[in-house]
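Researcher: We're teaching a course module on how sequence relates to structure. For the next exercise, students receive a sequence and then see the predicted structure as tokens, so they can try to spot secondary structure elements on their own. Here is the exercise chain.
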Amino acid sequence: MIQSTLFAKLPEYISTPDGMTIDAEGNLILACPNYADQSLPGCIVKIDKDKNITKWVDVPVHPETGLASPMGIAFGPDGDLYVCDNQGWPGKPELIEKGRILRLRIKDNAVEKCTVVAYNMEHPNGMRIRDGYVYVTQSTLNKVKDPSGKLVSCVYRFALDDENIEITNTLADKNILTTFITHNPDDQYGVDGIEFDHDGNLLVGNFGDGAVYKVTFNEDLSVKSNEVWAQDLSQLITTDGMFMAEDGNLYIADFCGNAIVRVSADARVECIAKSPDCDGLDGGLDQPGEPIIWNGVLVASCFDLVTGGDNVNTGHEMPATLAQLEI
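Model: And here is the predicted structure for the students to work with:
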């Protein structure tokens, strides 16, 4: 096992860190939905090579809810930042189906233009961009009833220039790429982490089942197959954020297990770092939500909020933290 260490204690304006990406200058960009304290604006943070942490922008709030909750983020080819604004994650009835996909043009540390790509989404979560499209996991589709009674979730695909697409959270949505069922009756939470492998296949983590699916494509980018690619519940409980390394290894944040898991190109699953319940201040994995490899180390955001069930985590503490692993 690798011992995680502290990467950073985060400023007091961050209560919940989540998705990460890297900008064109090599800065680490962090999305902070701040679910643990929604009096704090949902924001995007920039961390430079010297680990200086600055608030880049507050995400424009939803005009009806007054909130913004950025989770998955990714840069488009033109430098615009695409954002999963997951309004519904806390489960408040008035916020369900208020989620959005936003496209932010940021200049001089301010949002110059905010385009709503899609709106009325139930639970947009993870995000990746490839070949002119943005791919988004939606962790729940509660309106869709499978005969098994189990939860249905999906991946949406939008063109990068799409605007104001109204989502119904039903199978009538033309932007649904493919759907998934979560079979674990004790954790009915759907797809979350999302990544592309080096062959252009889409890898999707089904959170509740601890399974990674591989979605392959036909030449016209329609779905050719969607099957479980990697699963080993002795090593991986839940699949939150995922990151594909240059060497072909996939790194996964095991949210409930306080762990980081590596899946090799031959689909072998191995837990490489694990922490007990902790506050993260000594570098422990305090409910890791997403991993990323940055400047030669694996950085994990510590979500540190959900308790009960299979979660090792028992409570939220401040300050929020990022952990790191030497891999």
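Model: If you want an answer key for the exercise: The chain has no helices and 25 strands. The mean pLDDT is 97.
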